[in-house]
Amino acid sequence: MSYTNVIEARGLLKRYGPQTVLNKVDLTLPPGAIGLLGPNGAGKSTFIKCLLQLEQKDAGSVSLLGADIDQFGRETRRRIGYAPEQDCHIPGMVGCEYVTYCGELSGMPFEAARQRAHEMLDFVGMGQERYRKVDTYSTGMKQRIKIAQALVHDPDLVFLDEPTNGLDPKGQALILELIERIWKESGISVVLSSHLLHDVDRICDRIVIIAQGQIVAHDTLAALKSRRRPEAEVVVADQKERLMNLLAEKGWPARMLNNGNLKVEHGEASLNPLISLMRESGIVPLEIKESPNALNELFLQALETKREVAL
Ligand SMILES: Nc1ncnc2c1ncn2[C@@H]1O[C@H](COP(=O)(O)OP(=O)(O)OP(=O)(O)O)[C@@H](O)[C@H]1O
After folding, report:
1. How far lies 143's CA from each of 45, 126, 132, 306, in Å?
2. Which pTM does this prediction carry?
3. How far apart (Å, rounded) are the C-alpha atoms in residues 171 and 63?
4. What domain of life does the native source organism fall in (predicted)?
5. Is 40 in the pocket of ligand 1 (CB under 6 A)?
6. Which of 19, 55, 118, 123 gives the lowest tally of CB atoms within 10 Å of its CB?
């Protein structure tokens, strides 16, 4: 089946008891490296599980790779890989046996599955450890073997749920490098779920921010990074009241932040008019900071929403 979008969700609703975890999510995603970003408990894993029919949705429709999951769920799953957030290995099994077995579960004949398993274990950088029981692996190795099993059947789309969890910065960087290659070198679309902005910022070309079961932002990384609110934070040592008055005369709303700095909605394409105003008035700024790009700002807002709900 041909497709333009790898994921299309319409009105996706999921409740656990009284809690609405996905609140009528609408989302259309073309092929690519997609970052699903949100604070802990935002609903990322539940979203992935509902798409993969590991959890039953309460309402809405979903198409993956152009096929409605309610009609073609089983067939579609063969073309999709999944590395869950939790450990998913089979206790007592050796690494290469386990990945081979996952290939067979996806319908591959044993020989083909074994060959492809070794290729994927090479890809994720597993050496002789592949002949050891997975139970003895370090966290980094377990994350890598989860990626190998998700790719063994050569899917068109792969979901990686928090694949950098529990890793030190070096381990995180290694995993992110691997994930970047999945899309760039193999053309397999990747949905990378993370609560870390840095993860998705580095390697995803499209970002979805989810908070409290709702999509709060969805755009290309480039668009989110270039979108800036015409605001600035001004640090001045004195004359704050005078500056506030000058800004009000100019028609630029300003407010004093808790740290004593002034937040100015200057509405201009650059900081130059604000700098000129201050220079002409003889007020010397210690620093003028542009507002963060939309990606940072939206993610901070998502974190903030989460915190407010927790209080
Ligand atoms: N099986 C379940 N039964 C009841 N509540 C659940 C279940 N699974 C998840 N939840 C709740 O649904 C909400 C969303 O959880 P989910 O795991 O989807 O979030 P997440 O964004 O993946 O978070 P994290 O980054 O911590 O993995 C949370 O409040 C969680 O407690």
Report:
1. 16, 11, 15, 27
2. 0.84
3. 34
4. Bacteria
5. yes
6. 19
195 pocket-lining for ligand 1 (C-beta < 6 Å):
yes
Closest CA to 16 of 48, 42, 46: 46
Residue 188 in domain? yes
**Beta partners for residue 94, in sequence order:** 133
Q: Within this chain, do residues 118 and 164 fall inside the same structural domain, yes or no?
A: yes
* For ligand 1, mutation pick of 46, 49, 216 (most atoms within 8 Å of CB): 46
**Do residue 185 and residue 267 come from a single domain?**
no
Residue-range definition of the domain harbouring residue 262: 232-291
- Nearest residue (by CA) to ligand 1, atom 13, is 41
| CATH of residue 57 | 3.40.50.300
20 and 87 part of one domain: yes
| Sign of the CA dihedral running 119, 125, 131, 135 | negative
Are 59 and 13 in contact by the 8 Å Cβ rule? The answer is yes
pLDDT digit string (tens) for 199-236?
888 899 999 999 989 998 898 888 887 776 678 889 98
Distance (Å) from CA 44 to ligand 1 centroid: 8
Whether residue 12 contacts residue 162, with contact meaning beta carbons closer than 8 Å, is answered with no
Nearest Cα residue to atom 6 of ligand 1 = 16
Q: Which one-letter DSSP state was computed for residue 284? A: P
Q: How far is the CA of 255 from the centre of ligand 1 (A)?
A: 37
The response to whether residue 46 sits with its C-beta less than 6 Å from ligand 1 reads yes
Is 296 within a domain?
Answer: no
